[in-house]
Backbone:
């Protein structure tokens, strides 16, 4: 189980447009938002990622970089980036199911074609949203078992402002006896 204030798993993946994303050397002043999404087949993911794309410049002003990641390969990831009109949001692809599990993500099986007529992969990860500090320790996470009811990026942006203003630490760090 991932714990706040503890190091997250490593994450190194190919990026659309070339290069490699490496969480350990991402270089964000404050941290990196890692948004794991279900894949091209998910219409809710597209809407969700459009909002992250829209707010990426605001996160950047606060020293926070953004990344969208799925188990999709390069071709489907290109299609998702095009679908949402990505200009500033970075996309990584080829997340292994083993790495998804290491991050605590739930894995689902295919139910065939979705409501938008795109075939689900045989296995894929469900959504997860993480804010990882620049030292690769976990600040915030939300893991979903379903595509519905995800954290709002505008609320996360306000939380980042609050955390900066109040020097607010990551919470949920206690691991002792209860």
Residues:
């Amino acid at each position: 189980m991932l714990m706040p204030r503890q190091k997250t798993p490593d994450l190194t993946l190919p990026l659309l447009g070339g290069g490699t994303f490496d969480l350990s050397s991402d270089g964000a002043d404050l941290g990196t938002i890692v948004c794991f999404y279900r894949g091209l087949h998910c219409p809710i993911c597209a809407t969700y990622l459009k909002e992250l794309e829209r707010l990426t410049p605001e996160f950047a002003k606060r020293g926070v970089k953004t990344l969208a990641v799925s188990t999709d390969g390069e071709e489907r990831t290109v299609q998702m980036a095009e679908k949402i009109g990505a200009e500033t949001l970075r996309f990584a692809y080829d997340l292994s199911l083993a790495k998804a599990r290491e991050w605590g993500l739930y894995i689902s099986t295919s139910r065939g074609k979705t409501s938008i007529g795109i075939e689900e992969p045989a296995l894929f990860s469900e959504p997860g949203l993480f804010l990882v500090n620049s030292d690769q320790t976990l600040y915030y996470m939300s893991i979903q078992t379903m595509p519905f009811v995800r954290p709002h990026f505008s609320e996360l942006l306000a939380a980042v402002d609050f955390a900066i203003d109040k020097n607010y630490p990551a919470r949920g760090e206690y691991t002792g006896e209860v």
Remarks:
- The two ends are 17 Å apart (CA to CA).
- The mean pLDDT is 97.
- Residues 6 and 137 are 5 Å apart (CA to CA).
